[in-house]
Amino acid sequence: MIDLQHLFNAIVEGDNKAARALAEQAIAAGSDPKELLAKYMIPAMNEVGRLFEANEYFVPELVISARAMKSAQEVLRPLLLARDAQPSGKVLIGTVRGDLHDIGKSLVSTMLEGGGFEIIDLGVDVTPARFVEAINTHQPQIVALSALLTTTMGAMKATIDQMRTSGVRDSVKVMIGGAPITQKFATDIGADGFSDNASGAVTLARSLLVAGH
Predict the structure, then answer these.
(1) Sheet holding 90-95, edge to edge
(2) What is the mean pLDDT of the chain?
(3) Which of 37, 106, 159, 196 shows a CA-CA span of 20 to 30 A to 178?
(4) Calpha distance 12→129 (Å, rounded)
(5) CA 39, CA 151: separation in Å to the nearest integer?
(6) How would residue 85 be classed by pLDDT, with cut points 50, 70 and 90?
(7) What is the pTM of this model?
(8) Pick from 204, 206, 134, 205: nearest CA to 163
């Protein structure tokens, strides 16, 4: 019988190959994919987040753990889709108009996916109109806006303003993040929350979902 604690450890330690192999072995042995996710894989990413907040892990460790999580998830995804397993919630994410930075957004996407969320990633340089169109198409609970440049922070406000004008603002929670972003800025432009790191974004998304119910 496979010791599933090894799957937890492989993700925490960022062992990409081991995480995938252990997920495959667990499925072959008859493990429930939903249980693997809920009892071992998501808790592993929660532990990675805890280590990051305790300054025991840094961005490189976050990246390799998120990659290991993604490898294990790829094994489970077809089985979960076949069962129509419901994700925790749906997050629409993108880097705002004029900003081409992708690394932070991609890390947040991977951490959120590791936390059980379904992710729709619009990429970079996303216009306010495209965010609104995607909200109407995908019906997310949360919209996450990323900006790394002080010169593109205004595009966050423009996006939220357009959401209001288009009548979709009240249907979603908006969270923002990126190097220059502060809580004061988030409050000033009417966002529902802000996180300054990828681990905190998962905690924030969960709290916004609860607040939205």
Answers:
(1) 118-121, 90-95, 142-146, 173-177, 193-195
(2) 92
(3) 37
(4) 39
(5) 42
(6) low
(7) 0.77
(8) 134
